[in-house]
Amino acid sequence: MTAPVKSSPLGLTVLALLHYRPLHPYGLQQLIKQWGKEQVVNVGQRAGLYRTIERLHAGGLIAVRQTERDQQYPERTVYEVTAEGRAVARQWLEQMLAVPKSEFPVFPAALSNVPMLTPAEALEVLEKRAEHLAAQRTDLEARQAVDAGSGLPRVTLIENEYVHAMVVAEERWVRAVISDLRNGDLTWSPELLAAFAEHYEAPSAD
Amino acid sequence: MTAPVKSSPLGLTVLALLHYRPLHPYGLQQLIKQWGKEQVVNVGQRAGLYRTIERLHAGGLIAVRQTERDQQYPERTVYEVTAEGRAVARQWLEQMLAVPKSEFPVFPAALSNVPMLTPAEALEVLEKRAEHLAAQRTDLEARQAVDAGSGLPRVTLIENEYVHAMVVAEERWVRAVISDLRNGDLTWSPELLAAFAEHYEAPSAD
DNA sequence: CGAAACTAGTTGCACTGAGACTAGGTGCAG
DNA sequence: CTGCACCTAGTCTCAGTGCAACTAGTTTCG
């Protein structure tokens, strides 16, 4: 029994795509891009893809179908998913969908240190973020408009709906905070914070 | 000129806490937990904390204030933030707040492979997720109720508001999809998908 | 015909997450 | 009063990730 392969978004996607047909690594990357999934799986640098494939291969979840050479191109190894790979893909997928994993994104961590700035400075940087989010949102909306015309079944684009919903939610939240900063519902001063900091006595320090 | 230190949520938090007072690594961990920031910065395993501190130290952002020994405890090194550390912390914070970084969480990646399941199976796993999210949400709400009574300034707890808003948004989205699955607004079958998959001809494969 | 850009795969490095391990200290129960 | 569990404090290792550079052929276009 070899050590079980750890699940990863890219690993799952590779297994899923190999369900449709055996393929070589670069072809997988192309396919991911064609299906518009680069937004969501991170295949930007190929290194991760090759390493993931190696790992899946070592774990027996995929197997070499053939190695072909098309003279002008370097040798390409075509992989196919194994029976075990199918079973594992399903388990991974169910796990990933059913239980939310806590992932420590940077924004909330940064937010927790926002008292380091003055309210005016915080307002400024959050306005920049709101603009970035708005740009991202309109991008997503444009993409959705295009996809709507493609006649693809809705389920194949469901992840875009999710990403959109989350961006919208974040933008709304940021704008709400901005408005609280503007009208003074949310404010602070270094002295006020210092006073409260003293209540929190740290464990034996000096 | 030594290589610039890469920013990280934990690095920022360490610098921020050392603004209040010089402290040793374990004390920092305790402080993070006391302030309820373990939700958001990931200091669960100390290894990361020690490595981060080493890195900040090597980069000149923090300096050794003293090494004390409290006989019964092992030696503890107390660090303080340097002038450069203060400047860098501010830059990091502004960057992290102002520009959203795309981070590839697993859920959207998993969603993009949801057609591997049947609609009925998808419904089942998403219901599990909705329950997990609801539990997480009520936890956050309980915590907020407690915090509200503590008299702490709102800004010091702002990250909890954000996390709550995002959990709520995700739960709403998941429940909306569940209801679409239930009433048939969202459905699919293997044959339908196979038909569409053929339209997407992959780059030279065989 | 030469520069730039694309195809395809490889390599290295720094960082992260998770866990095990050491090693002394403290509290409690049998 | 001894052994067990748990706490404090720090270290180590391993697998996995993100990012960037590098090789080496290929096509495109001025």
Quick gist of this model?
The first copy, chain A, is mainly alpha-helical and 206 residues long. Chain A folds into two domains: 9-98, Winged helix-like DNA-binding domain superfamily/Winged helix DNA-binding domain (Arc Repressor Mutant, subunit A, Orthogonal Bundle), CATH 1.10.10.10; 106-199.
Secondary structure layout plus pairing:
The structure is a homodimer of 206-residue chains.
Chain A (H helix, E strand, L loop, with lengths): L8 H12 L4 H10 L3 H4 L4 H13 L3 E7 L7 E6 L1 H16 L7 H6 L7 H30 L9 H26 L6 H10 L7
The structure holds a DNA duplex (30 and 30 nucleotides).
What attributes characterize this protein structure?
206 residues; elongated; 2 strands; Arc Repressor Mutant, subunit A; disordered C terminus; two-stranded antiparallel ribbon; 2 domains; homodimer; DNA-binding; mainly alpha; 6% strand; 9 helices
